[in-house]
Here is the input.
Amino acid sequence: MAGIGFELKKIYRKESISRGMLGVVYSSVVTVGPMLMVIAAILLLYFFLGMTKVSYADRELLSSTILYTFIFSVILTAPFNVVFSRYLADKFYTEEYSNILASYYTGNSICCILATVLFLPVGWSLRVRGGIDIPFILAAYVQWISLVILFFAITYLHATKDYKIIALFFFIGMFVCFLSAFAFYKLLDQDAVHSIIYGLSLGFFLIAVLDFSYIKRYFRSVSRAYGECLPYLGIFKKLLAANLFYILGLYVHNFVFWTAPSRLFVASTFYSHQAYDMASCLAMFTNISVMISFMVVVETRFHNAYKEYMEGVIGGTYKMIVKARKKLFRTLSQQIIQVFGTQMAITSVIFLFLILFGTKIGFDSVTMAIYPVLVVAFLGIFMMYGNIIYLYYFADMTGAVITGALFFAVTLAASLLSSTWSVPFWGAGVFLGMLAGWTYSFFRIRWIERNLDTFIFCDYKVIDTMKSSSKGKIIYRKKENNAAG
Here is the structure.
């Protein structure tokens, strides 16, 4: 994500209201634009293809298929993305570009193989236990594998620094999705459920193909060192574990309520909890702008302050290091307060609107009863993820792993407990998990602040600056994993 900062710095170079708005718009397009396009396409298809007239069982089958393919494709690819992102950063630093495309093929193959193995029992259950027709199951598999490919490709697309192309590919894919679903419904006399799943499968498959072809064209030189990236999965196992724990914690409370007595069991395969899942979705979208605000502040001001400190470590005086360290953590504190304050204002407005009008625009009373606790929880979760990113900056993988593990473990245990409470307190489990993860990450950053010089100078060792890299000057090497930094 660091490359996005270069674009934001260009935008913010001239300070003005219009430049500020342009930066927010650009960040929004990069972070949540593709997701909003997908949601808009699905809602339009539901409206124009008359999904309200479809039987409840068929509607739930389609909704559950879409929900499962999205959630589990994110869970599958997220841990690999963060490790391969580190691999890309190292390759760019050492200017070894020929191995990048090989790593993409390797990572993509791993994710696709795992995705196929995971889908086999699901497809079998849909067919044998649920009695679902084979064309629907095949379309669901195409959608699932396409989402896995495109989510993994996001890391490599970010590396190209051509962020607008991501939004463009999603726009093209969702446009084809809408047209093809409409064609299946009107011209080929398919029912609404099959038309939508076929359209989504074609749309996502097209996006995956566009991503694949663009990455292949951009990183033209390819070596046969397909296995060179694999040791990174072991070397940076803490990085992988931290992201895996975080992404599991983000959804594990939903999984708990999928086992609650009020759950739905669709096609003898999919579990869901309509009210809780909808409340979680509303709470997540209420606070999604945290990620936009975080991107703007971290990739502009904090990145510069961090760079100044590291330059002082490499070749500055003690006074320069002390001054840069104070500026670094002053900037970090200001950004946390700024992002939290801004999001509180946004969340309050959306929260008030939904509390007053939620039931009038179609949300049931149970969903609105669960929503208040979840909206506070997701605000804290996104703020906690910001803290994890700061820990990544300071190469504190242990702190990041403990933060993610605490968040996941407490959310799981507390959600099992809160599922037995009254409806308004169902979201208390994820709230307590967020509180545990955020509190630890906050005090971990405070510990780093008090011990940063020791953390940097004692955890790294000086190495030969001429023989260690074809690029030239590397000053420190991490003792724990021997990765150049």
User: Anything to note?
Assistant: Residues 32-235 form one domain. The chain has two domains: 32-235, 239-456.
